[in-house]
Every structure is written in structure tokens, then in C-alpha cells.
Amino acid sequence: MSEVAIKHERVILDACCLINLYASGRIDDILASLSKPVFVARYVWSNEALTVNGAHDSAADMQETRIDFEAQILGGLLDLADLETEDEEILFVNFAANLDDGEAITGAIAAARNWCIATDDRRARNVFADQVPQIQLLSSPELVKHWADVTAAEVDEICMVVQRIRRHGHYIPPASHLLYTWWQNHL
Predict the structure, then answer these.
(1) Max CA separation in the chain (angstroms)
(2) Has residue 121 been placed in a domain?
(3) pLDDT tens digits for 68-87?
(4) Within a domain: 3
(5) Residue 166 belongs to a domain with what CATH number?
(6) Contact in structure between 106 and 120 (CB atoms under 8 Å)
(7) Residues 6+ apart with CB under 8 A from 84
(8) Pairwise CA distance, residues 31 & 152, whole Å
């Protein structure tokens, strides 16, 4: 599979993708490789993407580590977004009937502003695909593959990132994911 094409001018990350990118140990490089403004809903940043297990100390694999995205925000790799319009509020309420608040806010912002959504949550992906099919959905494997392709990352480097996401983000793509085999080959 070739480089993942990002079809929208901006990308908004849901908590699961944001945590996985942080767990990868290469969040700055992955965000920079997108060459597009990347956002997270302020609600997700302050209420959902809060901790990861031992991402910075291999001796503390099971110890929770507080996530700090200040460096990415200050460095311009990540920006915060809030619900701003009545249309976004209405979309939020509609999405919140089926999703948690973070996913609903993320989806409302993306749908109203025509942004790409990056989420690994199966239910959220199904809701967005059904209700806003014009919005591109990305996943952690697609973001990692994009980074690997754009930067021509070495196999050992890709393996380290995939293994860290599995170990610290507790994420493995479902067998039905288009990049499942690629991901498994790097474990």
C-alpha cells in the first residue's frame, strides 16, 4: 500500500489516536510528516487524553505517566479547537446520542469545518462513515504508515514505533483494517 493521501486541509485527532501517537515516542515526527495543521478538541486535550502506561520509562511499563502536549502545542505541531458555531453545537448533540463527548465534539468540529478525523474507535468510525461520509477517516496505522513513507523510516524505527503503540497505547488494529498485515509485520 502506498503513502496515505490526506484529502482535507486540516486533521483533528480523537483521544485514542492522540494517545497512540504519544505512546509511539515519535509524536513530533509523525505530526510534522502530515504537513497539514493538526488539531485536537480542547475537551479531549483536557479531559480524555491524559495518561499512558510507562511511555517514557521501559522499567515502568505498567505505571501511568501523565501526558503533556504543551511542547507540541507551543511548537505549532498541534492546535486546540473548540465548538464555535450553532451548527457545530447541533452536530455535537446529534453525535452525542451515539458517542462519548470527546468523539462527538471531534466529529462535530470536523463535519462543520470539513476536516479529516483521525480515530481508532470502531463505533465512532461507523457513526462518522454513516452520518458524514464526505469526511475522510484516518487511523493510527495510517498516520504511522504516512510518517514511515514520507520520512523513509528504517524498518527498525517503524518496528519500535509500532511496538511502543502496542505496549503503551494498548492498540492493535482489527484484522479487518487495510494495514493490519503491514502493522503485524512490524511487531
Answers:
(1) 48
(2) yes
(3) 888 899 999 999 999 999 99
(4) no
(5) 3.40.50.1010
(6) no
(7) none
(8) 15
